[in-house]
């Protein structure tokens, strides 16, 4: 029999050591970005849970997964993963980008700039002199320092008056 004054210490164990909990601490998106370029995002993930674990980390544009990786983290540890995505040339505009684990989601708005053309005259060649009434031949080298080729026109002007125009498209 046991007297009321007696006590026994007992340890109860449920056998559960805890669960990993992968929290997104930071999402850093390399900006600015133009459509057609590679989007690069660094995602820092910390295991704030009470156990070592392995989980999927992914990033999405407008809810569509575009890249993912599996990471393995001891409890109280963190790591940074870099995920990339080659944006299509027609992807200009505002997008919602998200970094995701099964435990956490971080979102932000990303502006992907429309690609632009940037035409410029690089050289003009013509005869040093011609006689009145002769045809003047002009060769113009046009360059494009922009991101995309679009049709444009090269105008030949003399004393401010356009006398000829030629369509061009330079990639």
Secondary structure elements and pairings:
Layout: E1 22-29, E2 33-34, E3 38-47, E4 53-61, E5 64-73, E6 78-86, E7 93-100, E8 105-113, E9 119-126, E10 138-144, E11 152-158, E12 161-168
Parallel strand pairs: 2-8
Antiparallel strand pairs: 1-3, 3-6, 4-5, 4-7, 7-8, 9-10, 11-12
Strand content: over 45%
Query: What is the overall pLDDT average?
Result: 87
* N- to C-terminal distance: 96 Å
Poorly predicted runs are 10-15
Sheet with most strands: 5 strands, mixed
Alpha-beta classification:
mainly beta
Shape: rod-shaped
> Which percent range fits the helix content?
under 10%
Please, how many helices? 0
Query: What is the N-to-C succession of helices and strands?
Result: EEEEEEEEEEEE
Spatial extent as radius of gyration? 32 Å
How many DSSP-defined strands? Answer: 12
Arrangement of strands in the largest sheet:
2-8-7-4-5
Structure in words:
The protein is mainly β and 171 residues long. The chain is 0% helix and 56% strand. The chain has strands at residues 22-29, 33-34, 38-47, 53-61, 64-73, 78-86, 93-100, 105-113, 119-126, 138-144, 152-158, 161-168. The strands form four sheets. The chain has a five-stranded mixed sheet, with no helix packed on it. A hairpin with a 4-residue loop joins strand 7 and strand 8 (105-113). The relative contact order is 0.18. Residues 10-15 have low confidence and may be disordered.
